[in-house]
Amino acid sequence: MATEKPERLLVEEWRDILAVHARTTCELDREFQAFGICASDFEVLDILAEGREGDPGCAFRVQELASRIHLSQSALSRLIGRLEKDGLVTRGMCSEDRRGVSVVITESGRTRHAEVLPVQRAVLARMLADRPKG
Hints:
The chain is mainly alpha-helical and 134 residues long. The chain has 5 helices and 3 strands, in the order H-H-E-H-H-E-E-H. It has helices spanning 7-32, 39-50, 62-69, 73-85, 107-128; strands at residues 60-61, 89-93, 101-105. The longest helix has 26 residues, at 7-32.
């Protein structure tokens, strides 16, 4: 039978997770400033660059990105607009559903992602190194 954590410990653990997230996001934003993007921009580029298994150049619907990025659809639409203005992604109508909008990473977006990826991984390694597991 599993033992349950006291409520106080659950709350402390939750607050620790939030603190690590906040510190890591701030550090990523600081590091990414030199590349003209923020942590949320990178997350979108990272998902688009990774693609789906067997289809690395695929388009994603905005709704798919919203569920993975954890931004509201309107905030994500503004973010995608900035990335599009900077030439890092393109938007278009979904071929399957004319009401939907699809997003694809551009070659400039792939280049920027490749430049920033090692920075992001280094920040994650540094910020999460001392985090207690479980």
